[in-house]
Design a protein that fits this description.
Elements lengths: L4 E12 L5 H16 L8 E5 L11 H9 L5 E5 L5 H14 L5 E9 L16 H7 L5 H16 L3 H15 L13 H6 L2 E3 L2 E2 L8 E9 L1 H6 L6 E7 L32 H13 L8 E4 L4 H10 L8 H6 L16 H5 L3 H17 L12 E8 L3 E8 L1
Parallel strand pairs: 2-3, 2-4, 9-10
Antiparallel strand pairs: 1-7, 1-8, 4-7, 5-6, 8-11, 10-11
Helix pairs in contact: 1-2, 3-13, 5-10, 6-10
């Protein structure tokens, strides 16, 4: 039995700072995905909403919030909140119901209206919340640990701030060609170096912004897709949503401890959390990194994108800068990474970004990415990580 589901439609609301409720962005993206699929809203059997907790009470029931905004039609509904991994986990929830035969079609929607500046903890006193603690006790806002990871690369592998800047240059060039991106202007390494220091060694242009935006997918069973005339649709082949395993020798804030009683048994694979996310996706899909044509990764900072090259197995540990300098991850290179422009060009619209990655891979595998097209793309992967041990990776094939 195939565990593939078809991607019949992909749609997005442009990223930016628009000042509207998050549901508006989700509805625009949903209608675009439905139009792309050639389906009516009444054809959808399930709505899965990737949730946001910054939009008031409806944010906690995102699936129903989007269904109401589109017009009640009796569909099933589900909601997922997994920080930055929400979009991919929402895909997984929709896929499960399709494969179980509960529904033929599902609409997966994520949208956000993000605050200005870098993310801060929600209000109130929550001493049992590790995210609240890392802000209030450690003083570790997001850019602080982006900077710590960058320093780690510099100490271990000899990477330089100039290398980090080249990631921004690459992604800005791709984003300039993407009409949905927020930042559509090429950037030079000199401009990165001239931007203000935020968390040494990272500068303002090394770190992604916060944005408003939305993304949506229409998924279906392969039988339904064929009945609708889609004989060779883009397909979701695997979704990894694994959690960390003890011991974690490289802490990912805010998760800084775990239980040694659950350590890996002898012979079980060990290593970093991000590498485990990718490994689970490859194992389910029956592929390896050598089979990839394109990747969309979670570039919260320029240095973090380099980590993902290694965690995805695109190069050996410490080899990311060499791959970058050789042009291997640029459009036209051996394995283009973030041909959408990445979060560097979009900014974070947290529940939407995992879906936006799949939207980009769908365009790439259909051959409809315009000047950003990766020639001959047939297999792509996304990589994303949310706080609290949420990870996600989606393998998309055609």
């Amino acid at each position: 039995m195939s565990r593939d589901v078809a991607v019949l439609g992909a749609g997005m609301h442009p990223w930016g700072k628009w000042g509207h409720p998050f549901t508006r962005y989700g509805v625009v993206a949903a209608r675009a995905a439905l139009a792309d699929a050639g389906l009516e809203w009444r054809d959808i059997g399930l709505v899965v909403g990737a949730g946001t907790v910054r939009g008031g009470y409806p944010g906690y029931v995102a699936g129903a919030a989007f269904a109401q905004a589109l017009g009640w039609q009796g569909s099933r509904v589900a909601s997922v909140y997994a920080a930055c991994a929400s979009g991919a986990q929402a895909v997984d929830a929709a896929r499960a119901q399709i494969l179980a035969g509960m529904v033929d079609t599902a609409l997966v929607v994520g949208a956000d209206a993000a605050p200005k500046g870098f993310f801060a903890p929600a209000g109130g006193e929550r001493p049992d919340d590790p995210d609240w603690l890392r802000f209030r006790v450690l003083g570790a806002a997001n850019p602080a640990y982006f900077g710590l990871f960058a320093r780690r690369r510099m100490a271990l592998h000899g990477d330089t701030p100039e290398d980090f800047a080249q990631v921004k240059v690459k992604n800005a060039a791709a984003g300039a060609a993407n009409p949905l991106a927020r930042y559509r202007k090429p950037v030079t390494a000199a401009e990165v170096a001239a931007s203000p220091v935020v968390a040494d060694p990272l500068r303002l242009l090394d770190i992604c912004a916060t944005s408003d935006g939305g993304a949506a997918l229409v998924l279906s069973s392969l039988d339904f897709a064929r009945r609708r005339g889609a004989s060779d649709p883009v397909r979701i082949r695997a979704v990894s949503t694994v959690t960390p395993r003890y011991p974690r020798t490289v802490p990912d804030l805010p998760d800084i401890a775990t239980d040694s009683a659950l350590a890996a048994a002898p012979g079980e694979p060990t290593g970093g959390f991000r590498a485990a996310i990718a490994r689970a996706a490859y194992e389910e899909a029956g592929i390896g990194p050598e089979d990839l044509d394109v990747a969309e990764v979670y570039d919260l900072s320029t240095a973090l994108e380099l980590d993902w090259y290694e965690d995805l197995g695109l190069c050996p540990p410490g080899g990311a800068v060499k791959l970058l300098r050789e042009g291997g991850t640029a459009i036209g290179g051996r394995i283009p990474v973030n041909p959408s422009g990445g979060l560097s060009s979009f900014g974070e619209a947290v529940p939407a970004q995992g879906l936006a990655q799949v939207c980009e891979l769908t365009r790439q595998l259909r051959g409809r990415a315009g000047s950003r097209q990766v020639a001959g793309a047939r297999v792509g992967v996304t990589a994303n990580q949310g706080l609290f041990g949420h990870g996600s990776s989606v393998v998309v094939i055609r």
